Amino acid sequence: GGRALAVKLPKFAGILGRGLQPERRFGTELADQARLYGKVGGIFHTDELPGYGISEEEADKLRSTIGAAEDDAVVFVVGDKERAELALKAVVDRVNQALQGVPEETRRALRDGNTEFMRPLPGAERMYPETDIPPIPITRDRLNRIRRKLPELPEQKVKRFIKEYHLSQNLASRISLSENVALFEEIVKECFADPTCRVDPTLVASTLEETLVSLRRDGVPVENLNKKHLEGTFKLLSLRKITKESIPQILSALARKPREKVEKILDELGLKAMSMRELEGLVSGIVDNNIEMVREQGEKSHKKLMGVVMKEVRGKADGQLVSKLLQKKIKRCLSK
């Protein structure tokens, strides 16, 4: 299915066989161009004929067919029509360059000390991509594979965080651009996979983006904290063994003693969460000790007593729970 195409090079007889480097002739330079631009195996030219199985009679017939005189050279290429035409065009272009002098080009060093053509020397207008690399066809299937593997855009991540995790717009925007975003999703997803987990994603995000930043400003070496420290802390919170108010203290201690287990840190800090019975007893005792203020100020006494209770619990009870128990106790006293 191939064709043999030829081109006449007027007055070039004997020049194609002239040596330019050891074992390299001008015809070799033309062959390099043909292989690069036409993707053919090489060229034949009359300076090396007869040869390659072509007789002198056949060479003369070739000259006659193409109308070449004795001082003309003939180059021919065998291959499919499109490639052969590109190869011969490259040959003609290189011959025309030779009429002007030595072309400006980039050459590749060979092991034998010679050089060969790589590409034209780039001009001032050259822009990458790299010209040494042949074009690679991009198929629709490849585009689809790339599209499926593209990372989620920050704006898409923000919308998803708001929808799935109910984060505020501000917090979702911050965590989506944070270096902690992967850690946030790992912690939240692992927690969501456990039906007993009750950790609020907002708390996880605010801990990573606000609490850790605050601790770093205070000189705490938060870079010592890892995923295991954070997951362990949130797991204890889920099990109600600690309160969210105690998280800064726990993380601060873990950062300073990163090899310690979270449970041991709790014992050292005395931050184990109070039981409901202990908390109810504490709230009742404080209200009873301040009963006169409660009767005088009514429900307004809640604010003052809240401060007293929280000072006593010192991170061992959830603030919202304390507030509810305190309101319930005050109302009970006022109803008597």
Automatic annotation (TrEMBL):
<dbReference type="InterPro" id="IPR018027">
    <property type="entry name" value="Asn/Gln_amidotransferase"/>
</dbReference>
<dbReference type="InterPro" id="IPR029351">
    <property type="entry name" value="GAD_dom"/>
</dbReference>
<keyword id="KW-0547">Nucleotide-binding</keyword>
<dbReference type="InterPro" id="IPR004414">
    <property type="entry name" value="GatE"/>
</dbReference>
<keyword id="KW-0067">ATP-binding</keyword>
<keyword id="KW-0436">Ligase</keyword>
<dbReference type="GO" id="GO:0005737">
    <property type="term" value="C:cytoplasm"/>
</dbReference>
<dbReference type="InterPro" id="IPR017959">
    <property type="entry name" value="Asn/Gln-tRNA_amidoTrfase_suB/E"/>
</dbReference>
<dbReference type="InterPro" id="IPR004115">
    <property type="entry name" value="GAD-like_sf"/>
</dbReference>
<dbReference type="GO" id="GO:0006412">
    <property type="term" value="P:translation"/>
</dbReference>
<dbReference type="GO" id="GO:0005524">
    <property type="term" value="F:ATP binding"/>
</dbReference>
<protein>
    <recommendedName>
        <fullName>Asn/Gln amidotransferase domain-containing protein</fullName>
    </recommendedName>
</protein>
<dbReference type="GO" id="GO:0070681">
    <property type="term" value="P:glutaminyl-tRNAGln biosynthesis via transamidation"/>
</dbReference>
<dbReference type="InterPro" id="IPR042114">
    <property type="entry name" value="GatB_C_1"/>
</dbReference>
<feature type="domain" description="Asn/Gln amidotransferase">
    <location>
        <begin position="182"/>
        <end position="330"/>
    </location>
</feature>
<dbReference type="GO" id="GO:0004812">
    <property type="term" value="F:aminoacyl-tRNA ligase activity"/>
</dbReference>
<dbReference type="GO" id="GO:0050567">
    <property type="term" value="F:glutaminyl-tRNA synthase (glutamine-hydrolyzing) activity"/>
</dbReference>
<keyword id="KW-0648">Protein biosynthesis</keyword>
<dbReference type="InterPro" id="IPR003789">
    <property type="entry name" value="Asn/Gln_tRNA_amidoTrase-B-like"/>
</dbReference>
<dbReference type="Pfam" id="PF02938">
    <property type="entry name" value="GAD"/>
</dbReference>
<dbReference type="InterPro" id="IPR014746">
    <property type="entry name" value="Gln_synth/guanido_kin_cat_dom"/>
</dbReference>
<dbReference type="InterPro" id="IPR023168">
    <property type="entry name" value="GatB_Yqey_C_2"/>
</dbReference>
<dbReference type="Pfam" id="PF02637">
    <property type="entry name" value="GatB_Yqey"/>
</dbReference>
